[in-house]
Amino acid sequence: MNADLSLYLVTDAALCGDRGVVETVRRAVDGGVRIVQLRDKDATDAETVDQLVALSQAIDGRALLVVNDRLDAAVAARERGARVDGVHLGQGDASVLRARKVLGPEALIGLTANSPAHLDAVDALPSGTVDYLGVGVIRPTTTKPDHPAPLGVEGFRGLVSRSALPCVAIGGVGVDDTEALREAGAAGLAVVSALCAADDPATTARQFRRRWLGGSVPRVLSIAGSDPSGGAGVQADLKSIAANGGYGMAVLTALTAQNTRGVRAVHVPPVEFLRAQLDAVSDDIVIDAVKIGMLADADVIRAVGAWLDAVRPPVVVLDPVMVATSGDRLLDPDAERALRDLLTLSTLVTPNLAELAVLAGRDITDWNDAISAAEQLSAEVRAAVLVKGGHLPGDEAPDALVDARRELRQEFTGPRIPTSNTHGTGCSLSSALATLLARGEEPEDAVSAARDWLRESLRAGDALRVGRGHGPINHFAGLWERGGAETRPAAGDVATQWWRGIAEIRTGIDELPFIRALADGTLERAPFLFYLAQDALYLREYARVLAEAARLAPTSDEQAFWADSAHGSIVGELELHASWLTPAHGVSAATFAAEPAPATTAYLDHLRSVAFGGDYTEVIAAVLPCFWLYTDLGRRLHAGELGEYARHAGHPYASWLATYADPAFEEATRRAIAYVADAAAQADPGTRARMRRAFEASSAHELAFFAAPMGPQRLR
Fold first, then answer.
1. Is 424 a catalytic residue?
2. At the top level of its lineage, which domain of life is listed (predicted)?
């Protein structure tokens, strides 16, 4: 068997502790473990069989299951209905020849090797007897006290260079060994302590997977029909995979005669040839993700399902091609039932609204109903569902990702892009998602990134001038422009992502006692004056940072804007502060007499370090939260969203609250957001990432600044 060996868990009952082996394995597989080896030297054969049965149920087809040494236990567990994929044997264990004969040609059989003599013994075996070698130990380990002398990374490299079989590194392996062992030739990492003893095996497994995938190109297989015009089907899939940084492969389920104006004919090759294509790819190449598109009939669907069950790729994205744009059903009832069964083998399903209605077995009346149907479907098939709202009327084009198992529901939206170049958008999106998931992205991040890429490609589609109907998207528009594989977002997308990224900070500000008391009028004068005194200290230095932004600004408009903002901080805002703090003297030394609080000092230190150590783009990203968070809070206070009394003329701080909703400040905030978002959209990925870090750091300082007036030091 040609298996994905990248992350291989070897169980240890003692390290699993009270959580137990089964629950540890369940969580580790949730995090991305690809192979589980049951190793329990102290268990009887009967106990081993019971454990294999329980592990098979917990894994539920999401990873391969092998047992250490106990060939007879593997056979007995299979007889009880467990899915046991093979055995791992030591040099002194049962003969690998007997294991291959008993378990069959499709079983996964591994063998321990830690010396040149072991490699020579493997080379003497008939071809196909052993599938992989477990090579180690890499470092000393307490989980196997009788281990041979540690090899280290270089010793491992030397053995791997002599082996014709893939080698898994085992023994004392930690997450920080990932890159070195992969570079030394490892086909995967076998982990014991780092996973079994982890507080959260799922989180630790995800860390291993991300580190492992970080240095590789994901191998993504499209199983779909063809489109000779190149806009949809496997042709679109391969472009999408490449555009998102993957290596694309394709197995054809059907040949079509079509163009941008419609399908003229369909030819479905024999199912036997379909399976031959699938086996030819998976027998040679480890597949990191599969995208499934057009499946013509029930026999084709069942053949794909049988192959998925045998190979079990880590990521399966199913685009259920069931309903034509006209509304006509493309599959007969038997095929629809078979396709629904295929959902249970999927990681993510990407139906449009018509397809979702068929799969959920219910009418869908509106967008909220669509999300409800997606949640129902996700719970039934145990796969995530991305429901696509592109066919909805209106100016917005929403999508929603739901995953009942993770209790996840996240909506994505953006303005509809006016274009007729929409041919193959569903194929392209699902292939992009498969590639991003295979790169180790979390589902939410993968959807966000795939949408950004698709929207960019849609915006550029008209420039292709392909066909006289619904033309294709421009899959490589961004690559052609930037010379790289990373998406450059539109300015509006940057603003949306950054604002969404500080959602927890914004909620935290709303829930602060200072803000709540300010809104309902119960705020005492002392903390209010403390806040004003600290804000006066802040504004004096903040104006200097704004002046530095003006000095660095690349255009006269930006230079004038930041200079005006610096002037406003000193003349307008500080004068308002002085009217409360030092009314008899105006803005004077007494206005700044307070001792800076820790939150004030930390915030100003951050701004100074950026202003005088970064570049223009980082400076304006760092000052943006002071515009954006204040304007947002002021708008909602003024609207009564934090309590109706904030709008009352008798509120003790009514004059102050009115300044929060000043239309001039709101317009300044709009311009500040536009300047920052435009700069981020045009920046290279590294600069954009630094800008976002500066923005998020300032946002966190804003939260701490608002918390300070009623923090612990103020209550003592």
1. yes
2. Bacteria
